[in-house]
What we know:
The protein is an alpha+beta fold. The protein is built from 22 helices and eleven strands. The chain has helices at 15-26, 36-42, 58-64, 130-136, 159-165, 174-180, 183-194, 201-204, 207-210, 219-230, 235-244, 248-251, 265-282, 289-296, 298-312, 316-332, 339-354, 362-367, 372-386, 388-402, 405-419, 434-440; strands at 31-34, 51-54, 68-71, 77-82, 85-91, 114-115, 121-123, 144-146, 153-155, 167-168, 198-199. The longest helix is centred in the middle third of the chain and has 18 residues, at 265-282.
Amino acid sequence: MPRAEHGISRDDISDNALKVLYRLNKAGFQAYLVGGCVRDLMLGLHPKDFDVVTDATPEQIKGLFRNCRLIGRRFRLAHIVFGREIIEVATFRGHHADGGNEDPDGNDKKALGKQDEHGQLLRDNVFGSIEEDAERRDFTFNAMYYSVADFAVTDFANGIDAIQKREVRLIGDPETRYREDPVRMLRAVRFAVKLNMTISKPTATPIKSLAHLLGNIPAARLFEETLKLFLSGQGEATFLMLREYGLLTPLFPQLESLIRDENSREMQFIRAVLRNTDDRINNDQRVTPAFLYAALLWYPLEEQSQKLQAESGLNAHDALNIAMGEVISRQTKHIMIPKRFSTVMRDIWILQQRLPKRFGRRAFQLLTHPKFRAGYDFLAVRGQIEGGEVLELADWWTQFQQADNGKQKQMLKTLRQREGGDKPKPRRRRRKSPNKQADHD
Length: 441
């Protein structure tokens, strides 16, 4: 498509991406914008990232840019660093050959890829032509290439038709492509929600039967993928589509029995948290994955804690502590949760047990807790869904935070009178030992 037939303008492209394209072209290499940025530009959206593809090898790219670093083992990429912006540059990928020897550096154009017994790609340093690269792309609308040499867009897989029909379509045989990289199932859902499209029938059909293959993906990679799924500003809709296609169970197996009923307390709570998270993201407010993961695992935690109390006779505090470790441990086998987030999750959960204990100085001490706000917000959503005492408690904390010191003391006094709780215990008189009594006599 020549310039007159598409709406992409250089004014809408990152200056740094243009620098990379022009320098590669000047050095005699082909270079194109590709993938999501071209798709979004064709849709009239503003891309967050700009990816470049070229026939230069990673080492040749590094030789042209001092601000370049090479990353990746599965497929080597060049990151050109411009302050906070990183332009990702990849070499054209080729098809896998049978047999032969792989270059130990992984950068030979004749190097081979490696697959496991499920067909999943373990190493993919196979370089080729732009035509082969287009065939290796995942979705048809991601196989469009924009060149600054002639300002044309080359559409290899009829991505324009998919955009016009608002369909997410895989390139090639869907089952084969999902086996190569099961994360493509998650990407299909993410794009469908993000772009307000449907997943085409051939692309959607194999998903449920192949969802279990996500169990072969490293837990650390799935953590990054779930951030894209749930912290996109459309987390609630994404969650519902993942549930529809059976993709939640391999990600969060502890939720499987809790979310079967659309109207269950657990489903309503998760949807409310995701909805609140979406609102915050769309209003440019801060969010933390810890809050979201604390919500997703709250009812499995509550269930495990109650089980420990019933079976082992543990008190509520000890049962909660043990249950937290068990629930997080089970989850990290599927999705790795970094300690900086799991620590906050524990704080939020513990505060659910501490917030009802408000007598004496406890209420004022809780207000100074570093994670009080997160714990309170969590309680507030629980109150919306569970009602009853939880809602009453959340309302009390809402008023207590906003009240002045005199009003706060009055609220505590009223609470003490109503519930008669935490009266100071009489001091026990210590009995003198017989020897000391004899000495005294």
